[in-house]
Amino acid sequence: MAAKKKSNGGQPTAEAPAAPVARAAPATKAGAPKAAAEPAPAIASPAEEPVAAKPNGHASVAKAVPSRSKAAPKKAAAKAPAAAPAPPADLKVFQIYFEPWQRDLLDPAFVPLDNRGPATELLEFDLFERLSLSTHVENVKLWGALSWRFSEKTGLTGADVKKQIEDHPDHDIYFCNPYPIHEALYHNLWLQGETAHPRFLELVRAFFAAAGLPDDSQAILPSALYSSANFFVGSPAFWSAYLPWIRAVLSRAEANLPAEIRRILHSASADDRNIHAGQSYMPFIVERLFPLFMRTAGRELKGFKFKLTLPEEEINVHLRLLREMKDMAGQTKNVWLAACWVNYRNLYLQQYHGREWTQKYLRAVTPTEIKFA
Question: Which residue has the higher pLDDT, 226 or 28?
Fold first, then answer.
């Protein structure tokens, strides 16, 4: 049966609009120099507005005027009772927007977050770092920041997100994959990236080597770990492990990469089709590092993958069978079954994308050796 071909090929897109004003360094370990916290992002909610400060840096406080009546005996000033600490919030999910008209499209169950400002290369990751250092997530058990297009891409509303979290409590990280087609058709997201960004595998392998990471580019990854977007709602335990790990990986790679490879990775060459507003390779690498983090530094964390509605409805019977076949091969470490999946998958890709795409990409996304993550 010939598979129905889609015009966009199911490729993911990074949020291209401008990201936060400045990059904030993650919290440092004891003994390391501390970075000054950047101002928290503006959040369009009265409850989130900061207290106005006077020129001396202190908030305005009204002074009590003592009574001048001689008949009134002097008494020791009564101490005001200490304010009770605010109870921890169970869940706080921000929704990012960049233009005033986008705010009208936000889900009322989320907290609007105005993220206008000069573009930064790492997009959502920079925002996560800034939020983690701000007062907006203090004493919050779970927090995250989602795109203004979150519902469009996932089919989930804010109420759906809260319901799934309530129904699956006590997890450290809640995430999703808006592109389940990739779970069926690619060994992993690194191979899928080769079809979206020029020289992606070559550059990624150089990045792995420079960062001291295992080369994960050919391993068969289970669909349960696929995450091709930064749609995260996490606990303090997750954020305090994930953010420093990513920053350390980036720092090691930056220090050890050959100069020419480093230049290309930070260039707009990643967006040769001009569909990602000229982004560099870096945000596309960072968003694919999450599964590796969960299998290494984050292996003790408990994750839950949101059940999606709209994207799952759009995949056909072949894709469902391919995904099940690949996952079963991975679970059983059955090389024969994995080879059968590759053959079935290759036939599907030829029908789905056609001759030109097949000649350009099929060999690159088909490793000659079966390896399991």
Answer: 226
DSSP 170-184: S-SEEE--S-HHHHH
Opening angle at CA 222, ends 281 and 242, nearest 5 = 50
Task: Compute the half-sphere exposure of residue 151: CA atoms within 13 Å on the CB side of its CA.
Answer: 15
Better-predicted residue by pLDDT, 355 or 53: 355
How far CA 140 is from CA of 91, 235, 303, in Å, comes to: 6, 8, 18
User: How large is the average pLDDT for residues 247-269?
Assistant: 97
Contact (CB, 8 A) for 345 and 362: no
Q: Can you say whether the dihedral through the CA atoms of 214, 340, 178, 277 is positive or negative?
A: positive
Where in the chain are the domains? 88-313
What fold, for 88-313?
A: Spore Coat Polysaccharide Biosynthesis Protein SpsA; Chain A (3.90.550)
Half-sphere exposure of 182 (CA within 13 A, CB side): 26
SS3 call for 151: helix
Long-range contacts of 206-212 (CB under 8 A, 24+ apart): 206/257, 206/258, 206/261, 207/253, 207/257, 207/261, 207/265, 207/285, 209/256, 210/252, 210/253, 210/254, 210/255, 210/256, 210/257, 210/261, 211/249, 211/250, 211/252, 211/253, 211/256, 212/252
User: For residue 57, what are its two tokens?
Assistant: 């840096």
